[in-house]
């Protein structure tokens, strides 16, 4: 059972609209699901993993890609260069420990090389939508993990 069932409807609606707009703008539903699943793996969000694995299958993401996603860097040609660039950016934005300019609190920035690699595969609008999608799923992960909503649990 979740810690609380309370999530303001207006907040949930805004987060859902952000997620949907980012996915539409990215224009690749299968890639969008790979991105949200990878972020959810990093954030240990079982609820989001359960939901987005099912959606990914519906969008035709292969079982092999889903099975190897946590080790995508070592998976050879299972992921193309565009997918690899998106997954690298997903990890950098989700974890925020890379980069060359560390803050006094020990945080970091998205490394320039990772961002530039993504920019080689996505035009400016799609790259903006990709960053928005990564940001949105990280927000959802944090909301669901903080509330301890289990897989298949009630959503706001």
TrEMBL record:
Domain Carboxymuconolactone decarboxylase-like: 10-91
SUPFAM superfamilies registered for this protein in UniProt: AhpD-like
InterPro entries: AhpD-like, AhpD_core, CMD-like
Pfam families noted in UniProt: CMD
PANTHER family tied to this protein: 4-CARBOXYMUCONOLACTONE DECARBOXYLASE FAMILY PROTEIN (AFU_ORTHOLOGUE AFUA_6G11590), CYTOPLASMIC PROTEIN
Protein's recorded name: Alkyl hydroperoxide reductase AhpD
